[in-house]
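Dear U.,

For the methods section draft, I wanted the exact inputs and outputs in one place so we can describe them consistently. I've listed the two proteins in the order they'll appear in the manuscript figures. Please don't edit the token lines directly; just add comments below if something needs changing.

First protein:
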Amino acid sequence: MPATRERFSEAMDRVFRWGHRPEWDKHCEQVCDLHLLGLSEDAELDLQGLSEAVGQEALEPAIACALEDLATLRFEPDDRNLVDDYLRRRGWTETPKAREYLLAVRDSVMSLYEVQEVEPGVSLTLKDLLRNVAPIVVSERMGSMQLVRWDIIAGRVVRTSDATMLTGAVLHFQRQMAQGFSEGRQAVSQAPCACDRR
């Protein structure tokens, strides 16, 4: 029986708590600051202040995206990754399926998707708007009850041995905003870059 989304979310929560250890706290703070900077014009607000300024409903998805982004990054000087570090030290506490999911998140990329088909309570068929790949069917119970055809979302699709799914951090985009994001990403991808997000 496939592991439940709730169990995968619990495993990610343990990784994120690991990210608050002293050796990771600085990286966690930097990544969260980058993601949350555009939520308010007041750059001095803490999380409580941001919650009051923009609302918890807007803040929670942004934090989830920031933490998942942290899970994919590698840091100098020794190419460290949060998921690798957690699994090396605490992986024995996780089930094989949870470890597989965490590694899939580590290797995932954020993209923009257009919802092309919906099977309520079961799945979504998504078209990647940033990469030239075939549409993909993802198992998605809750999202397939809320999204409709032609909706645009930002998220990460991950594959395990028995399922293809979205991770927990999903943002709903207006089509005009998504188009601007896509054009901006294309311009950035064509510019020289000194970083490697592997």
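Second protein (the one for the lower panel):
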Amino acid sequence: MGQNQGPAVGRGRPRDRTLDARILEQVLALLGSHGYTGLTLDELAARSGVAKTTILRRWPSKAAVAAAGVERVALQSVDVPDHGTLRGDLQALLYGAVDMFVRGRGQFVPRLLRESGHHPEISDLLFTVIHTRRQAYRRVLALAIARGELAPSCDQELLIDLLIGPIWTRLLITRDPITDEYVDSVVEAVLAAADVKPATAA
């Protein structure tokens, strides 16, 4: 995924990281309001208060700077909870996902998903977000296995699919509200399907 590269390193004055951050914040804002198709380097430069060449010295293309912005928010937004039970950890992850993708800085992600069929380069951007978040679920499931709540032979990828699938169905297809009660019902259904046992004392 060549587009997922960071800013190019060149000679001369040290890089202004606050400027990098300002550009990437504007990328996220434009992805949310315009989508990937409507994102232009000219508008990004104007919103960031820099010349277009300043952006291109850091990232060689629109896809590269978009990928850097998406990676920034993906890495900043996933905390791995450890509440002592799988139920509590899964609720925390799903509540966080709803906050992120419905009300927070990740609101652009559903829009990118809708655009991805027409723009293959978007798949790299989505992989960054999806892979990062799935890693958090894997770590939570590993904690549950260590506590004796889940069997080591459980299909972790299937459990993750069962957890996030209903959320994305509402985000992308039905547009039905995603309430805390709905999130809780998804977690309870997955816990029942996985035959989760009480945690054993360490």
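Candidate sentences for the figure legend, describing the second protein: Residues 54 and 149 are 52 Å apart (CA to CA). The chain has nine helices and no strands.

Thanks,
Y.
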